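Milestone M4 deliverable, item 7.
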Amino acid sequence: MDGIRFLGNVLWFVLGGVVAGLGWYLAGMVAAVTIIGLPWARACFRIGTYTFFPFGREIVWKSELSDEPQGAMGVLRLIGNVIWFIPIGLSLMIIHVVAAMACFITIIGIPFGWAHLKLAAASVFPLGQRIVPIEVARLARERNASAQLATHRGR
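Output delivered:
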């Protein structure tokens, strides 16, 4: 499976992943110009790095990886994501959705289309997301599902 992921990442990078990743880096640099944009810049650079080589990794919410309660940070993160969406997030989302539609035209492009749709979702709310290997994401989701099931059984 690692060979297929490697091949997918190489093809992705050559056939447009480098442009998409540089777009995220550009958004990060624009956000970093202002001091208040630094949280968004950090998220852009993190997602931009993921955009260069997305196969074998996944975007998950930080809350899926830890048992820590969100508290006030959850509210602040939501406000920050809403502020992000208007000037930058919407345009990145549209670019990734259009690129996904172009990729879905061919059978070979279907995995690339799915990668663009994942990036479109990440562009909506980038704050609070983490990039992890697929195996870690699967384990975190299984653990959370087990915890929720235990909670529902206890009712």
